[in-house]
Amino acid sequence: MKVKEKAVTEKASTIFKLDEMLTDKKKNLEEVDDTAQYYERKLDSTKKELAVVEDDYKIVSDKLEEKSRKAEIAKEVYFMYSGDGSDREHDLFEEVVQLRYENEQKDGEIRSLKQKLNDSYEFMKRFMIGEVTLFEKFMQRVKEKVRGFAGIR
């Protein structure tokens, strides 16, 4: 009986020690989880800050690109019309630079709009309404509107 009691006591002691170890491990795991959550929050905060910085960089980059292009245009215009001049000539010079820059911007917009129009046409050509493509149906409606507007039937 004493041997069995000793064995039971040893097993109870071992279970108690294992239970303490398990409790310590759980506590350590909770600390690691808390630390991980802290760094996840810090990472999220840093990502948000980075997004703001990236947006600011894009704005500054766009402005720099605009100013650089205007400077190139100014240089071109300067060599075309170089010479000392009056305030009126200076104002005309500035206006030419601004108009050439705006013209380049409009050309880019026109190219973009033409591409979007062509993409839309291609998109409409893929769909059928009865025996007619959506594009053909669209063009028929445009013809009808133009004829109606012009008074042609």
Mean pLDDT: 84
Given as residue ranges, the uncertain stretches (5+ residues, pLDDT < 50) are none
Number of helices: 3
Strand order of the largest sheet: 1-2
How would you sum up the global shape?
elongated
Provide a descriptive summary of the structure in words.
Helix content is 88%, strand content 3%. Strands 1-2 form a two-stranded antiparallel ribbon. It is an all-alpha fold and 153 residues long. The relative contact order is 0.03. It contains 3 helices and 2 strands. It has helices at residues 2-80, 87-125, 134-150; strands at residues 128-129, 132-133. α1 (2-80) packs across α2 (87-125) and α2 crosses α3 (134-150).
Concise description?
This protein is mostly helical and 153 residues long.
Explain the layout of strands and helices:
Blueprint lengths: L1 H79 L6 H39 L2 E2 L2 E2 H17 L3
Antiparallel strand pairs: 1-2
Helix pairs in contact: 1-2, 2-3
List keywords for this structure.
2 strands; about 150 residues; elongated; mainly alpha; single chain; 3 helices; about 90% helix
